[in-house]
């Protein structure tokens, strides 16, 4: 009945080839007189989603997570992952070859400083690491009495014989009606932010796409064109994109704003700027160390800091916000149709996680506007819902049974990017499930209602989401919220709501609001909406104040609410949110879905859930 065009359920990774490939890598290291090498899960731009030809960590170790690294030495090897992936890594990596290490509690550089021996030569690929990480690698090698060496060729590439070609997805125009500002005006703003620098090297493809109002198709789920740009204080920018990606019309349009060049000319460009003694700004989070090293060896000065485009891109303009609202209305109607369908089908006991993924994508495709999903849908039943980053495969596919079902999903539309999580009751939820769901909901409401002075960071409000859980001795390990792009990455910085979110929140920034709770091996809870920061007028206020407008429109499952835990203000917020959901989405729904939505969002007004929740009177 349904199908998925944007998500595969193939089993990815596994320990089968780890021993053979680690041995091959060690032979390749001997050929370069190296005693060890680090293999990150990274491309030249530090993207979250990387093209197939950059999946070196997966190819070598079998680990298929989105973040991690491996270090291979002559006599031992290790894979480093964060807390999201420790169990996955243990299942996918050959433990007889690779130790699995928690990369946050024991960073690779700390492990390396103890594992290396004096006099050894440790290699790295300067295209795949930032300048700061290379400095930490150098310090680790120095502590061990070893030498850090930039490899002339990545040894993994020399043994990966069927390595895919570089991607060449077509570049498309992101029309001004969606972007809200022409590229020329953006270039002017960037120049004004250069400070003492002679120019900026744009290494983040998200910033590149934003600056020139283009989108691409080089990686999964995010419309990125991989490449670089150099914006000088004076003169025309240089845009370095693979010419295979450019139609004649796109080439002519981009040629109005920039000189066009191939990406592999970025190193000669840095050499030329270095000989001129140029001071160039590099983005510390995405710039390859190779480029800063090249510039400085040639006589230039590398100013490694924050690309100013990051904050410019984060603060959405009116056209982008209007587009986001339209995208969320469209997406909310599709999600509501799915929830109505799911509520009818799940109790029959025949649905699986893959069925749910395929159905939800089909409802989104039926809008006629879906370009892609914004990330692989997390459809998690039973104990799988306790894994925050679970990915269903043909092997892991689970039947949806009584308990809770968690679905975290989103869509890429030309006018906006969505990301929404709902936890759904299947059968009669337990008292414990309702308690945990309601504590998560209380934290979600606290963030949604937050009012704070301009200059407040996400770290300063993160605790609001955690307090109801803390009061019961509980917590969750991920951040409360991440930034979201405008038909770009569903995970956009620099803004975030987390313990490490130090960037001040500003009007126009879009963030997620997604506290959660996870009982390992049992069930998980997460409720996520997207919000936009907006000015908030308060009578008699002595400071400029900000708050949030909730963008996501979709019902929250009232069958999971323990009404005794909600206070009057929280109930008022929930009623008001659902009234807005009904008013906005009802005109876009057929009669059956509209009737379901009214019932699903009105249960506390006296409609008793057929699954046994107890709405307040």
Automatic annotation (TrEMBL):
Pfam families: Creatinase_N, Creatinase_N_2, Peptidase_M24, Peptidase_M24_C. CDD domains: APP. Keywords: Aminopeptidase, Hydrolase, Metal-binding, Protease. One of its GO terms (molecular function) is metal ion binding. Residues 21-151 form the Creatinase N-terminal domain. Residues 545-602 form the Peptidase M24 C-terminal domain. SUPFAM superfamilies: Creatinase/aminopeptidase, Creatinase/prolidase N-terminal domain. Residues 324-534 form the Peptidase M24 domain. One of its GO terms (cellular component) is cytoplasm. Belongs to the peptidase M24B family. This is Xaa-Pro aminopeptidase.
């Amino acid at each position: 009945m349904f199908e998925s065009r944007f998500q595969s359920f193939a089993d990815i990774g596994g320990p089968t080839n780890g021993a053979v490939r680690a041995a091959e890598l060690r032979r390749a290291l001997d050929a370069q007189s190296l005693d060890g090498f680090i293999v990150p899960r990274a491309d030249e731009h530090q993207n979250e989603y990387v093209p197939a030809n950059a999946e070196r960590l997966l190819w070598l170790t079998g680990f298929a997570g989105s973040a991690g690294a491996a270090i291979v030495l002559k006599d031992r090897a290790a894979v480093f992952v964060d807390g999201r992936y420790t169990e996955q890594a243990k299942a996918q990596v050959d433990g007889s070859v690779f130790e699995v290490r928690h990369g946050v509690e024991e960073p690779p550089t700390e492990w390396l400083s103890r594992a290396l021996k004096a006099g050894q030569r440790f290699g790295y690929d300067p295209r795949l690491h930032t300048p700061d990480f290379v400095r930490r690698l150098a310090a680790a090698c120095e502590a061990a009495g070893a030498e850090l060496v930039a490899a002339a060729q990545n040894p993994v590439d020399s043994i990966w014989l069927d390595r895919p070609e570089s991607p060449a997805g077509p570049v498309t125009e992101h029309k001004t009606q969606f972007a809200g500002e022409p590229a020329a005006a953006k270039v002017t703003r960037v120049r004004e932010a250069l400070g003492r620098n002679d120019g900026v090297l744009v290494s983040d493809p998200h910033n590149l796409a934003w600056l020139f109002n283009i989108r691409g198709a080089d990686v999964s789920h995010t419309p990125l064109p991989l490449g670089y740009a150099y914006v000088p204080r004076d003169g025309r920018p240089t845009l370095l994109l693979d010419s295979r990606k450019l139609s004649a019309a796109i080439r002519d349009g981009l040629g109005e704003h920039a000189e066009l060049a191939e990406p592999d000319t970025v190193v000669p460009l840095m050499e030329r700027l270095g000989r001129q003694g140029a001071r160039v700004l590099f983005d510390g989070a995405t710039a390859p160390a190779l480029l800063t090293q090249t510039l400085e060896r040639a006589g230039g000065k590398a100013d490694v800091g924050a690309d100013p485009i990051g904050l410019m891109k984060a603060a959405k303009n009116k056209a982008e916000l209007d587009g986001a609202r339209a995208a969320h209305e469209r997406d909310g109607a599709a999600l509501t149709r799915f929830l109505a369908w799911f509520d009818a089908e799940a109790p029959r006991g025949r649905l699986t996680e893959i069925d749910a993924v395929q159905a939800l994508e089909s409802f989104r495709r039926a809008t006629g506007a879906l370009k892609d999903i914004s990330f692989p849908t997390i459809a998690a039943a039973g104990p799988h819902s306790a894994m925050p980053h679970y990915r269903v495969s043909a092997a892991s596919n689970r039947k949806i049974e009584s308990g809770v079902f968690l679905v975290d999903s989103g869509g890429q539309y030309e006018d906006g990017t969505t990301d929404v999580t709902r936890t759904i009751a299947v059968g009669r939820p337990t008292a414990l499930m309702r308690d945990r769901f309601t504590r998560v909901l209380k934290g979600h409401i606290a963030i949604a209602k937050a009012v704070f002075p301009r200059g407040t960071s996400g770290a300063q409000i993160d605790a609001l989401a955690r307090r109801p859980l803390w009061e019961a001795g509980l917590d969750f390990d991920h951040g409360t919220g991440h930034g979201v792009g405008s038909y770009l990455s569903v995970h956009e910085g620099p803004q975030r709501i987390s313990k490490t979110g130090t960037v001040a929140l500003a009007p126009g920034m879009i963030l997620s609001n997604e506290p959660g709770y996870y009982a390992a091996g049992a069930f998980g809870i997460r409720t996520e909406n997207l919000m936009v920061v907006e000015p908030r007028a308060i009578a008699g206020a002595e400071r400029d104040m900000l708050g949030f407008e909730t963008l996501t429109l979709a019902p929250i499952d009232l069958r999971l609410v323990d009404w005794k835990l909600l206070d009057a203000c929280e109930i008022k917020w929930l009623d008001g949110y659902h009234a807005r959901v009904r008013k906005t989405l009802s005109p876009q729904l057929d009669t059956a879905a509209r009737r379901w939505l009214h019932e699903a969002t009105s249960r506390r007004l006296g409609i008793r859930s057929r699954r046994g929740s107890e709405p307040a009177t």
